[in-house]
Amino acid sequence: MTIEERRKRAVEWLEAIYEEYTQAAHNYHIFWTVNKMFANPNLIGLDDTFRAWMFDVYTDSTALAVRRQVEQGKDWKGKSRNIISLRALLEELADCPEIITRDYYKAWAIHVRMELPMLSLMNG
Predict the structure, then answer these.
(1) What is the pLDDT of residues 90-107, one digit of tens each?
(2) What is the DSSP string of 22-50?
(3) What is this structure's pTM?
């Protein structure tokens, strides 16, 4: 596999990882927003079944999201398993650091800032 192919795959993995992270952040926001509704004095004393279920679902989905991101990209023999996770991406970058060079990153960052104006506002 060429460096360009590996780089393309790494960027695709990074996009997938980012998508999972934003979903987890969205779930976090929803969980705590709904949880605040239970502070309403009119709801005090109600059965906690829904609240307990919501807590269980949220913690299970969070644990699975973390587990997916720490999954190895290679099996015990060193063979690639085609896993998309942060750990697999870091393993790939450790094996082949030429994938993301300073020059490539600088060109990529400029391109991303052009496509996502909010990013340039957030970073100054």
Answers:
(1) 999 999 999 988 888 888
(2) HHHHHHHHHHHHHHHHTTSGGGTTS--HH
(3) 0.74
